[in-house]
Amino acid sequence: MAKKIYDQIGQITKPDSIWVRLGKPVHALVDKIVKTDTAESRTWSEQAHDVMVEDTMLHAKLIMYGIFAILLVLLVWASLAQVDEVTRGEGRVIPSRQVQVVQSLDGGIVVDILVQLGATVKRGQPLIKIDETRAISSLKENESQYLSLRAKEARLKALANGGSFNPPTEVQEKAPDTYLQELQLFNAARDELNSQINIARDQLSQRERELSEVQFKKEVAIKTYDSTNKELAANRPLLSSGAVSEIEILRLERDANRAKGDIDQASAQMARLTAAISEARRKVSEAQQSFLSKVRTDLNETTAKINSLTQSSLALSDKVKQSTLTSPVNGKVSKLYYNTVGGVIQPGKEVMEVVPSDDALVIEAKIQTKDIAFIRPQQPAVVKLTAYDYTIYGSLDGYVQDIAADSTIDDKGNAYYVVKVRTNKNNLGDHLPIIPGMVAQVDILTGKKTVLSYLLKPVLKAKSYALTER
C-alpha cells in the first residue's frame, strides 16, 4: 500500500504532470496573497521589516504546500484503499432441523431407561431398551423353519437333477437332525423311483421276450407252411396215377392249414405284444415324468416359502434391532414420556423427544428487494446477535446457504427476500447459549469498493439527476 502511494506521489511531482500544471495557479495565488515590495530605496528598518514579512510569507507558503500535499496523499489513498461492501438485514435464529421424535414401531415392555431428561446424547446412542424375548423367539423359530426348508430344497434339487444330496453348510452345522432326516427322505424317494422304474422295465423286458418267442414261432410256421405247400404241389399230380394216395394229400393239406393258423395266431400275438411293449415303455417314462413333476412342484413351493421366510427374517431381525431405541441426532433430551421400568409402550407411540444440537446455526434474514441482486449463495456473512453485545462477545462468521425464490410481503406491505445464513459454529462461548428465536443483524459481504468511489457516489448520483426534473 505504501509503495503504491509513493509511486503515485512520484507521478504527481513530475514537471509535465497535470498536478504540477494545476499547482501553478496555486503558486500565483500564494504570491498574490503574500506579495512583497522589492524597491531598493528602503531604510534599514524597512528592510528588516521586509525580511520578517518574507519569512512569514515563506512559512505561509510552506503550510499551504503541506496542506496541498496532505490533500493529495489523501486523494491517492482514497483512490486505492478498498473497503467491504456489505448488505445488511435483520433476522432471527431458527432450528436447523426440527425436534426429533423417538417412537417405538412395535412397542413392548420397558426393560431399561438409559438416559434422563435433559441429558446430552450422541447420534446412535441407546436411549431405551424394550424387552426382546418374544422377538428373539420368533426369529429363532423362523430360522429353524428356514434351515429345514433349505435342506428340503437341496433334497428336491438333487432328485430333480439326478445328483447327490449336498445341503448348505449352515444346515449341517446348525440343524444336523434336519440334515439326517432329509438325507433319509432323499434315499427313500430315490429308491422308490428306482423301484417303480425297475418294475416297469421288467414288464417291458418280459413283453419283449414274449414278442421274440412269438416271432420265432411265426417264422417256423411260415417255413412249415411253405414246405407243406411245396410238397402238396409236387404230390397232387401223382394222385391220378395212383403213385400218391388221397390220404397223403389230405394230410398235407391239413398240415398246411395248421401252419397257416399258427401264422395268423402269431401275427395276432405279435400285435398284442407290440402294444404291451409300447405301454411298458410309456409306464417307464411316465414313472420318471410323474416323479420329476411332483419334485419340481414341491421345489417351487419350497423356494417360495424360503423367499417368504427370508423377508420375514428381515422383519424379525429389524424388530429385534428396534427393541433398543437410539438417538437419531446429536442433541439434548427435551421430553421423556416413559419413566417407569416395566411400563408398556404401545406400538407407534412417542417415547421421547431430542432437540438437535448441530455444530452450526441457521439465521433467517430479511433482505430488501433492492439489495437482493448482489447476494449469491456461499457469500461470506457476519452474524451479530442483539442479545449479546458484539463489541464485547464478538460475532459469528457464516455464509449464505439459501435465497428465497420469490419475495414476501409483510403486514405493512413491505416486500423482502428471505435469505438463510448458516454459521460456522453454534455458540459465542461455553456460557453464552444461543436458542431459536433470538434476533440477529446479518452483514453479507457482497463485494469491495474504494473510499473515493464511496465518496463520489452521492455526487455522481446527483449529477445524473441534475437538470432533469420536469
Q: Can you tell me about this structure?
A:
54% of the residues lie in helices and 20% in strands. The protein has 470 residues and is of the alpha+beta class. The chain folds into four domains: 2-80, no CATH class; 87-96 and 358-465, Beta Barrel (Elongation Factor Tu (Ef-tu), domain 3); 100-130 and 325-355, RNA polymerase II/Efflux pump adaptor protein, barrel-sandwich hybrid domain (OB fold (Dihydrolipoamide Acetyltransferase, E2P)); 135-321, Up-down Bundle (Substrate Binding Domain Of Dnak, Chain:A, Domain 2). The strands form three sheets. The protein has a six-stranded antiparallel barrel with strand order 1-10-14-12-11-15. A four-stranded antiparallel β-sheet has the order 2-9-7-4, with no helix packed on it. A four-stranded antiparallel β-sheet has the order 6-5-3-8, with no helix packed on it. α1 (2-12) packs across α3, α4 packs parallel to α6 (176-235) and α4 runs antiparallel to α7. It is elongated, with a radius of gyration of 58 Å. It starts with a helix and ends in a 5-residue tail after the last helix. Residues 1-6 and 32-41 have low confidence and may be disordered.
